[in-house]
Specification:
It is a single chain. The chain is 32% helix and 20% strand. The protein has 356 residues and is α/β, with parallel strands linked by helices. The protein is globular and about 55 Å long.
Length: 356
């Protein structure tokens, strides 16, 4: 299945972004307690109150929480009374943002709150993610997320697209850039470490951690009232690869390329790209699919190799790209989010600031 929306006449922008400091464990707090400071912060950045929000959409996973309909508990942090217009996706928050974007395009609301969260520390996230696999042929074998990423990395090496030294350089650059990010979980000079699953070492893999993020969207002049330099969403699209890994070329990501094309990413060069690449080898795939050369600043925040809260990391990529537009550090940015094994599902958004 694919998903596409042709942008309407309304201009929609990200006007505020907030995130937690991502940590290895937040066992001292619940999902609601982790989320509430982020929601308060993102509202405070615009001066809005919960009652001012026209639509609310969240992204999370019941599998991480270990209980059905866990997202309803998080609504305690939002405040669902008086009654609000609300929706939820069992996906990364980037897909919740896509739903909110289409809602605002219809004119049914002028503002939207999007949030997502994930606590990976209570269990083995490597085992939890196996529930995404084909239930008949792959899941019974229990290949975890790192083993599958290692298959992808080896395929890239066999095709001559990368080597272990190049992958190590991706990890080192990401965590060096994260040194300037106060929210990153890993930062600075971190050893590449031992093999986890060959050819991937510790430094090629994302940290396990807990975190949450939230963004505010607004339409038209309302966006300019709430933000000095809104990050306008010029296009967004998401696509999905075949579920069966055996029929895919793991060295390429045609779904990312198609999503980027439909989002307008190739119409003009971008200066910044926030890529949701949990493994160093996946950045290699995404750079090729998105036609990113060395003139583009890739993951200045450190990316998912510095902090990877499952179900929030994709929304963080959009938020980080938007924040750079807000600060005047980027004029045209690309944000990418992924879900599923080996870059199975991919979303691309293009953000621009007003001319300076």
């Amino acid at each position: 299945m694919t998903s596409r929306h042709t942008p309407g006449p309304r201009d929609i922008a990200v006007v505020a972004f907030a995130q937690t400091g991502h940590r290895r464990s937040t066992e001292d707090s619940s999902e609601v307690e982790m989320l509430m400071p982020v929601l308060h912060e993102v509202l405070a950045r615009t001066g809005l109150k919960t009652a001012d929000i026209g639509f609310t959409c969240s992204g999370s996973s019941d599998y991480l929480a270990g209980r059905a309909f866990s997202f309803t508990l998080a609504l305690d942090g939002v405040g669902a009374w008086p009654p609000i217009s609300e929706s939820h996706v069992e996906m990364d928050g980037a897909w919740a943002l896509y739903e909110a974007w289409t809602k605002l395009l219809t004119g049914d609301a002028d503002t939207a709150l999007v949030y997502s969260y994930g606590k990976c520390s209570p269990g083995s996230v490597r085992d939890v993610l196996t529930r995404q696999l084909d239930p008949y042929y792959v899941a019974p074998l229990w290949p975890d997320s790192i083993a599958l990423a290692a298959l992808q990395a080896q395929a890239l090496m066999d095709a001559g697209h990368t080597d272990e030294a190049a992958l190590a350089a991706v990890g080192a650059r990401s965590r060096a850039d994260a040194a300037a990010n106060p929210y990153a979980q890993l930062k600075g000079r971190i050893p590449q470490g031992d093999y986890v699953v060959r050819p991937l070492r510790t430094g090629d893999c994302p940290p396990v951690g807990d975190g949450a993020a939230a963004v505010l969207l607004a339409a038209g002049e309302r966006a300019r009232d709430l933000c000095e330099r809104p990050a306008w969403i010029r296009g967004a699209d998401h696509r999905v690869e075949a579920h069966s890994l055996g029929v895919r070329d793991l060295t390429d990501s045609p779904s990312t390329r198609l999503a980027a094309e439909r989002a307008g990413a190739f119409e003009r060069p971008v200066d910044t790209a926030e890529l949701h690449a949990p493994f160093s080898s996946q950045e290699v795939v995404l750079r090729r699919a998105l036609r990113l050369d060395d003139s583009v600043r890739v993951n200045p925040s450190g990316g998912a190799l510095a902090a990877n809260p499952v179900m929030a990391a994709g929304l963080v990529r959009i938020g980080e790209a938007a924040a750079r537009v807000h600060r005047g550090e980027s004029d045209r940015a690309l944000a990418h989010a992924t879900s599923g094994p080996c870059l199975q599902q991919n979303l691309v958004a293009v953000l621009e600031g007003d001319p300076r």
